[in-house]
Amino acid sequence: xxxxxxxxxxxxxxxxxxxxxxxxxxxxxxxxxxxxxxxxxxxxxxxxxxxxxxxxxxxxxxxxxxxxxxxxxxxxxxxxxxxxxxxxxxxxxxxxxxxxxxxxxxxxxxxxxxxxxxxxxxxxxxxxxxxxxxxxxxxxxxxxxxxxxxxxxxxxxxxxxxxxxxxxxxxxxxxxxxxxxxxxxx
Length: 186
Hints:
Layout: H1 15-39, H2 50-79, H3 86-105, H4 108-132, H5 140-155, H6 171-183
């Protein structure tokens, strides 16, 4: 992206460059932060309990950044159309980063919408080039976004649920299994 002063930021030229960099930096930071929380060395309280925070951030912080980075670049290559570069890509990266920060130090009511908002934002730059080039077979990326949103929505649950499995078909099933597990003393 050539800026007002004629410089270029290569990290904003491809989705994988920005999101892989963000994922790598987050992995380097999140694991020691979680260890400090888990060990009781640090008393900062993220929006979720330490174990849930760690699970959520590995799935929806780290892994999703890698997936979005790959898809932002792959869709551009498949369609020979630009997806998000420059300012658009920077905004997607800032949205991802704001969700990470909100989950760390903000209230859950703020963190959850920020985290979920990234999915339609990414879809809004992935779907148009696929439709423009009539490569309908690549619309599976919409399915990736829908599965991510559904899983993510289930993962951030009220604190009264001590155990959540994102593999179960419904929140009612999660609650039933949780009650049985806790009543059996496990």
